[in-house]
Write a structure and sequence with these properties.
- The chain has 2 helices and 8 strands, in the order H-E-E-E-E-H-E-E-E-E.
- It has about 110 residues and is an alpha+beta fold.
- The protein folds into 2 domains: about 1-50; about 55-113, Inhibitor of vertebrate lysozyme, Ivy (3-Layer(aba) Sandwich), CATH 3.40.1420.30.
- It has an 8-stranded antiparallel beta sheet, covered by helices on one side.
- A hairpin with a 4-residue loop joins strand 5 (about 75-85) and strand 6.
- The protein is elongated and about 45 Å long.
- The two termini are about 30 Å apart.
Length: about 110
């Protein structure tokens, strides 16, 4: 079910790396030279997708928050996350942590990577 759900959403993608993460299946793949991932429940239900973005493409409030709260810790990676209901979040990754923000750049939470 998971693989057929993925194929319906991404019919042109054929090189996929699958991982089981916290009971869900995560597909990592490249599309138009960009790194993507998509998460599905065991029954094939879509959970969220993630696309790697440039750090400078994070909303200004995210960059400001990161500077104010993490100082010299540099952001290693940035991503835009789209949930199954259309909600958009942003993620800034620093040394072993993922810091999550809403679409407007307001802090949501910090999680261990």
């Amino acid at each position: 079910m998971v693989k057929s759900s993925f194929a319906k959403q991404h019919p042109s993608v054929n090189k996929i790396n699958w991982e089981l993460e916290n009971g869900d299946y995560e597909a990592s793949f490249k599309l138009n030279s960009e790194s993507h991932s998509a998460v599905y429940k065991k029954n094939g239900a879509f959970v969220e997708s993630e696309i790697e973005i440039k750090i400078n493409d994070l909303p200004i409030p995210v960059l400001t928050y990161m500077h104010d709260h993490y100082g010299s810790n540099q952001i290693n990676e940035a991503a835009k996350i789209t949930k199954s209901d259309g909600t958009i979040n942003f993620e800034a990754a620093i040394k072993g942590k993922d810091v999550l923000f809403d679409k407007d750049g307001k802090f949501i939470k910090e999680a261990k990577d």
